[in-house]
């Protein structure tokens, strides 16, 4: 895969580049968090980092792969490339979950024959709303609204999940901003 211009690359370009190389080495990964918003909003939102969930026991292999690509470990699970100071890659602990929901089925994207994964638009919205519901992160509500206005999603699934999370009133605020 052709290396993107790391000085100016987007979250999506860096995700595809790193995800491709992880997949090529047999490591399944899922992009989560704010970078998913950046991807689905075509860059209207910029996160500044990529949160990638991988399987347990792969940290040393990941470090080796990223070092081969020119990334340096800057903290225990954080990596950056000297040519790409505007984006940091983080590998938070898994599994992939949204609130108390661990039954996440990410979307698959094929990049030059390699499968990489990303939260679906519905799960991206739920992920952002979880931060809004539980931490009152207003910017995450704004991100959920941005995705809801630009991507197809399952509103009923989000409604049911929101009620199960004890956030019916906060869901109504989200609904009022998208309708």
Give a quick summary of the entry.
The protein is built from 7 helices and 7 strands. It has helices at 11-24, 34-40, 59-68, 121-135, 138-150, 155-164, 168-178; strands spanning 29-32, 49-54, 72-75, 78-80, 88-90, 107-111, 114-118.
Structure description:
The chain is α/β, with parallel strands linked by helices. It folds into two domains: 11-118, Beta Polymerase, domain 2 (2-Layer Sandwich); 121-178, no CATH class. The chain has seven helices and seven strands, in the order H-E-H-E-H-E-E-E-E-E-H-H-H-H. It has helices at residues 11-24, 34-40, 59-68, 121-135, 138-150, 155-164, 168-178; strands at 29-32, 49-54, 72-75, 78-80, 88-90, 107-111, 114-118. The chain has a seven-stranded mixed sheet with strand order 3-4-5-2-1-7-6. Strand 4 and strand 5 (88-90) form a beta hairpin. Helix 4 runs antiparallel to helix 5 (138-150). The protein is globular, with a radius of gyration of 16 Å. It starts with 10 loop residues before the first helix and ends with a helix. The model has no long low-confidence stretch (mean pLDDT 96).
